[in-house]
Amino acid sequence: MLFLLLLPLTLLWASCEAFPTDQLISDLTHSASEKRRKAAYRLVDQGEKAVPPLLEAMSTGSDTLRYIGAQVLGRIGSPRAQQMLLDLSHYENIHVQREAILSLSKIHVPTLIDTVKQILNQSPQSELRAAAAESIAGFRDTSACGPLIKALADSAVLVRQSAIASVNRIWIDRSIDGVIQSMNDEDEKVRFIATQIAAIRRIEAASSKLRDALYDPSPWVRIEAIRGVLALADTSAVDGLVNILKYGEEEEVTAAQEALRSLTGIDYVVE
């Protein structure tokens, strides 16, 4: 009986020892991507235990180790990673910088939002501003709404895309103006996300923009506009919906038919 009781403990110990932390950290720079991926997942599973040796290795390690290490530290979410991620957010390798910025909002240090705001407002690199716009929503702090709304007018499409997605995650009344503004953006993805937000949040002030979006050149934007006018029960959108029946593509035609049936009680058929 003693042997039977000890056997599971022995197997558990052997399982833990099979993946020593130092070996996993070394595997983060292995030439095989699958090896790197598995090592990263196992380090995340180790949690706080993996943080000190990982920080030590990253202090003198390669850019690859710092790049993947920053991701792992963000997934673990340890406040002890604060200084390392701050240092890497100003590192010479932009890819390492980006991962560090994305992880700053994940380690439960609320004051780091000021660093991310500064990057969003001042970085000359659009990729880093975009990372900051994505990261800043993770703090769940409405003080970030102002910088995000400002970023909706950024000259770089990538920044505007990240900003409009983050606006929906931390919401204040002022966000409505930003969403309506973004529904006119020249970039299809920005318009798509903004129109989707207007529909999901049933923004009454966006009703005319949603009707206009029924004529957007992008079918994906038009589909979100259909959902929006339906959510707002906007019967004045009938003409736009009928136009989609005449000239639209498969998925949006089906959506327009269903919206018309719901709004008017009539089954529209275009011959």
Envelope shape? elongated
Q: Helix and strand succession?
A: HHHHHHHHHHHHHHHHH
The CATH architecture of the domain at 173-271 comes to: Alpha Horseshoe
CATH class of the domain at 173-271: Mainly Alpha
**Cα gyration radius (Å):** 25 Å
What is the helical fraction, as a range of percent?
55-70%
User: Please, what is the CATH homologous superfamily of the domain at 173-271?
Assistant: Leucine-rich Repeat Variant
pLDDT averaged residue by residue: 93
**Can you tell me the CATH topology of the domain at 173-271?**
Leucine-rich Repeat Variant
Please state roughly what percent of the residues sit in beta strands, choosing from under 5%, 5-15%, 15-25%, 25-35%, 35-45% or over 45%: under 5%
Number of strands: 0
Task: Quickly give the structural class.
Answer: mainly alpha
Number of helices: 17
Provide a quick synopsis of the model.
The chain is 68% helix and 0% strand. With 271 residues, the protein is mainly alpha-helical.
